[in-house]
Amino acid sequence: MSDLHGSRVLLGVTGGIAAYKAALLARLLVGAGATVDPVLTRGAGRFVGAATFEGITGRPVRDEVWQDIPGETHVALGRAADVAIVYPATANVIAKLAGGHADDLLTTTLLAATCPLLVAPAMHTEMWEHPATRDNIAVLCRRGVDVVGPAVGRLMGGDLGAGRLVEPDEAFERLVAQLRAARSRADDLAGRRVLVTAGGTHEPLDPVRFLGNRSSGKMGFAIAAAAAARGAKVDLVAAPSALPTPPGVERHDVTTARQMHDAVFALVDVVDVVVKAAAVADFRPADVASSKVKKSDGAPRLELVANPDILADLGARRAEGHPRPFLVGFAAETDDVEDNARAKLTRKNADLLVVNDVGATDAGFGVDTNRVVILGRDGSRTEVELAAKSAVADRVLDEVVGRLPAS
Length: 407
Fold this sequence. Notes:
By secondary structure, the protein is an alpha/beta fold. It has helices at residues 20-31, 42-45, 50-57, 74-80, 91-99, 105-112, 125-129, 131-142, 168-185, 218-229, 257-267, 310-319, 337-348, 389-401; strands spanning 8-13, 35-40, 83-89, 117-121, 146-147, 151-154, 160-164, 193-198, 203-204, 210-211, 233-238, 249-253, 273-276, 283-285, 304-306, 326-333, 352-357, 369-376, 381-388.
């Protein structure tokens, strides 16, 4: 049996010239044993008729919120789906999804759905490259939506460029992978306790100023959210951050590296996994002024002293015979990225080290996407291409789950 056998797929079709390909995708899904619920926008109906999808799927086609209210509302459609895909997704519908609009059956249903969602953009190159579309795609990625394509190829009117809908077989394989991953991750951390550190610590100079870094905490918060969604009891030790606490996560706020060290070691004996995603200050001022340093007093002379190394101290504890917790470190590098990270992995006695090049503009500090390499103490190397930090978080946890001893 295929991974889709017995699954229910919500197939959203929007008004683009490539809408005919959705019929081919529907045939692949039905052939794999899935129940397919087609939901067409009014624009889609101008390109491909409802009868086509009803004939392929054996299911009624819905295109209005007001249809069949006693039978199956938009809320019921959204709740019933195991996975959803919008194929093709126009720029207009992508904008609606990013803005949370619900002005037709498709957007209303997707707003009520809690299953994994794939979006397959299809539009002219100029529309795809417009800043508004790119911003909307970034919003969807940040929420964990999987975006497949667009491909580069022949477009309507004979143009050639980015914006072509990916072929049905590629969309099908991506959808299968999403559903497989969602099923394998469901509660795979149940019964485990995971501690995550996030954000950049602040080291005070005086009551007003501090030494800090550019970390936003987004990666660590994403890992905490993903671990909770997978059934773990999660403790999040957070440096100063305006990010909201993820659902199901117990948050412990700290400011300095020493406070973070104390918070981590207060919990280390009761957790199974520690993910050290925080950007912890290596040094702090030796002396903190009790009142604001005035400009008129001249430039202050700073003497810095080393902060405790939380990951190294956790690794040293492991070396002393403590079998847990499983240790995951992060390395933000700019030069000789993997060589430096591999050395850090050995030096800190960690199980995994997640390294990223913070010199990149689309990954690392302050943005919603990341690309990383996950290095294992066993010599393994897993490369994660550019993706939403929520998706990267799950890839990191996949590597953790595969290495945890049986509980």
